[in-house]
Amino acid sequence: MENGKPKTKKRKYSRNGCKECKRRKQKCDEGKPACHQCTRLHKVCIYDLERPIRFENSGYILAVQETEHNRGNRNDTGSKLTGQTPTKMSSKHVSSVPIPNSLTPLSLPEMDFNESIGSLDLQVAKDLLDDANSLVTNIHDLATHELTLDDIIIPEIADMPHLSPESLAPEAILGTVNNRKLANEVIEKYDLQDADKELLTSVCLGPKSYLIFPFASSVESNQVMTVLLQHSKSCPYLLYSLLAISATFQFNLGNEHCDVISRTHISTCLKLLSAAFSPELSENVNKSIWNDIEGLLLTVLVLTTNFAASYKVNKVGILHSWRTHLRGAKDLLLNYILNYKRRNISPGLALAKLWYFAIEMTAGLNSPLGGTLSKVRKSDKPQIKSENRETVEQAQEDELLFLDTGFFDEHSNPEYYRILVQSQLVTTGAHPFNLFLGYTIEYVRAAEELVRGIIFLREHPNNRLSTNQIAKITSLIYQSLQATVIPGVNLKTFEVSDTVQVDIPASLAISEGKRVSWFDLAQQVHTNHLYLKMLITPGMMNLPKTHHLVRELVSTLIESLVMVKKRSSDGSFYLDRNIFDSRAMMIQSPIVQCIELIDNLDDLEKASLYFHGLVELGTGSAAAACERVRKHRINLQQLKFEDISYHDPEVETLPFS
């Protein structure tokens, strides 16, 4: 360089330049880690990397770098997630892997948790801090301008770190320390007062902990809370986001004063973020930045879930604003993933990736605005009419992040899979089931294909998918419907034979002597929702709501509410509390989509009981569903079903909120 200006190449375009410059067809100075053009335009600078591994299922390439209801049935046995390690397959379509007769322990190779983080590029660290500071500033603007929060004085916190003093190794998070001990350590470190102690213990050690991770086997062994508590020890902003969401859950249960408490803790959280990620810190970075970025990402996700769980705020304005800030967090997450120096993914990063994917998949399927991660690939785009063909922009960094967060199986993403299994968030059978997301890898493959088509149709509403594309989506949906988690489960009643050994407490509910598989119920409901989406979406099948295929599928989804039963005495319906608990949150979004498609009062009553049950648990987003059920009941009583107008609802709920 001369006079501080980057030296440009003589050729028209740089063959070795970054992807953004190639996409824009502009010269690239090939500067590392970020070229001059990307730095100037505030773009993520990505170069073609060596040693790629291909994700099965596509041409994508990723570069290598207590008791509540019947919770008493979930005995904390301390057992590992179980299953058989699937045989390596040469093709994703191979289905000859034998289904195990029972779920058996998996032995993982020892992981070197003391592995060095590696040399930290100073410029990379500064860029990450700049991204973090920009995100924090934007989020703080949201709170002050849209939530009209009063100025809150930051509480005095002893030794409050600007950059966390410690880097959390996986064994520190996945060790034998239980959540009660971790919570006590957090309380002591920050000298929390009684009111805040109660909020923290409520969300971390009480039934409310299931509202953040419904498939946890017990509050003591809630893996998600373990990660959040460990990071809270060195990230006070994450702690105050947890206090805020705990107050929100209390508010949803009728404690009106907790609304002010929640908003106060949100303000404190944001002020702590501003202090921890101030611009001047970019001149004083160290290796602990990895932990700080993970803490920031987790904080944003907790706050996003908090807003999704708040039903008495301006939902449209708030959620659309948070979509914008999630996009900023997406850029930070991408930059972080590309520059992560450890060979083994940390539990905090793995959880952040899963949480983002849960939000993005829900938005991609249900929101007219779509998500922020998923994009249509130029190399394998949906087929459209030749006379009206459009150019679909390629966005490889978004593709990488979508796949890196969503494809959690061993073949596609071995290190991600490994830490998720060790964190007891993914099973290891022939069809890996993700306890945090509530579905298998087969569902992810089908949903990814469907979302790509939906995104394309959102951007090009006058087009339609070809029969080949519809057939591909249908095939993947069928494979997902055939993916059973508990061997031998009855996919109509979800009952499991007593002869099948099951070692994951969260997977089963027991009622009237019968065992019901919650894992398979969630898998089938989510997959049938994909099928319904394909049937009714304009540009795909675009079937009317009165079509027999739509009617059959809606009926199947409502029949999946096996926790709603009919009394033999008077024919009325009731919630079976032996089955119904917070795990029912994992199927909320698909059932919400069915409300206006229900054509009879009996099925609508089942849906009503289900959503009112969720409200009783503290699920704020279910309150809006109850209101829609009420309005649809009035319409069914006054009009014929075919005369009721239908609009595909915008579902701004998380799988758990």
From TrEMBL:
One of its GO terms (cellular component) is nucleus. Residues 75-100 have a biased composition (Polar residues). Residues 17-47 form the Zn(2)-C6 fungal-type domain. Keywords: Nucleus. Its main location: nucleus. GO terms for molecular function: DNA-binding transcription factor activity, RNA polymerase II-specific; transcription cis-regulatory region binding; zinc ion binding. It holds the Pfam family Fungal_trans_2. This is Zn(2)-C6 fungal-type domain-containing protein. It comes from Meyerozyma guilliermondii (strain ATCC 6260 / CBS 566 / DSM 6381 / JCM 1539 / NBRC 10279 / NRRL Y-324). It is found in: Nucleus. One of its GO terms (biological process) is positive regulation of transcription by RNA polymerase II. The keyword Transferase does not apply. Residues 68-100 are annotated as: Disordered. PANTHER family: LYSINE BIOSYNTHESIS REGULATORY PROTEIN LYS14 (PTHR37534:SF49), TRANSCRIPTIONAL ACTIVATOR PROTEIN UGA3 (PTHR37534). It comes from the Eukaryota.
